Amino acid sequence: ATPAAANKPAAPKPAPAAAKPAPAASGDWFVNFGSYSERSVAERWSTRIKPGAGRVTVSSAQRDGETFYRVRVIGLASDSAAQTVARQLEREYSLSKLWVGKE
């Protein structure tokens, strides 16, 4: 004889939970990862670094008639949060002290 449970249809599987989007970066503090004379170099770095907070951007700046492209981690909530991200990136990429600032 076949057990009664074997004749019941399987319970539907629960739908997988939707991935939560990363929280939007909010805050005025930033870490300047580097400044480059070529936008393509800055863009490559911007896709490689993975900070623990904030978001990575590339912005242009003028200095002495030349354009530089800054890779920054922006949207950090405090000086402390920015310093933490800076130390993480310094260790990860064997860098000297990164510049931390406020917009």
From TrEMBL:
UniProt lineage: Bacteria, Pseudomonadati, Pseudomonadota, Gammaproteobacteria, Cellvibrionales
Any GO BP annotation: cell division
Annotated segments matching region Disordered: 1-24
Protein keywords: Cell cycle, Cell division
Listed GO MF terms: peptidoglycan binding
SUPFAM superfamilies: Sporulation related repeat
Keyword Cell division: yes
Keyword Cell cycle in annotation: yes
Pfam families reported for this sequence: SPOR (PF05036)
Domain SPOR: 23-102
Origin superkingdom: Bacteria
Name listed for the protein in its UniProt record: Cell division protein
